[in-house]
Amino acid sequence: MTLTNFSFFSAFILGLAGLSFNRTHLLSALLCLEGMMLSLYLSFSLWALTLGATNFSSAPMFLLTFSACEASTGLALLVATARTHGSDHLKALNLLQC
């Protein structure tokens, strides 16, 4: 495993660990998801460059598009929960109360 592959893999694992262990605020969960998507985007881009094939060059752009859609949906949910519940704490979001 090369150093670049190890760094992208460790960045993804750190984002996943942050998502699973730090579950207090919705904003921190969204930031961990964005970090994971950024590491996937960089690894797909590097993979497409090393292979040199043109059929793999569109995969990072699709991932970047889905990441932007995920970020806008997450921010819309963050604003909606902050308006309805008064905070972005994940423990305040109970499905039985709604």
From TrEMBL:
BP GO terms, sorted: ATP synthesis coupled electron transport
Record-linked Gene3D superfamilies: 1.10.287.3510
Keywords, sorted A to Z: Electron transport, Membrane, Mitochondrion, Mitochondrion inner membrane, NAD, Respiratory chain, Translocase, Transmembrane, Transmembrane helix, Transport, Ubiquinone
One Gene Ontology cellular component: respiratory chain complex
TM region(s), chain numbering: 6-22, 29-49, 61-82
Domain of life: Eukaryota
Record's subcellular location: Mitochondrion inner membrane; Mitochondrion membrane
Enzyme class: translocase
Protein function: Core subunit of the mitochondrial membrane respiratory chain NADH dehydrogenase (Complex I) which catalyzes electron transfer from NADH through the respiratory chain, using ubiquinone as an electron acceptor. Part of the enzyme membrane arm which is embedded in the lipid bilayer and involved in proton translocation.
Stated name of the protein: NADH-ubiquinone oxidoreductase chain 4L
Organism, as annotated: Synchiropus splendidus
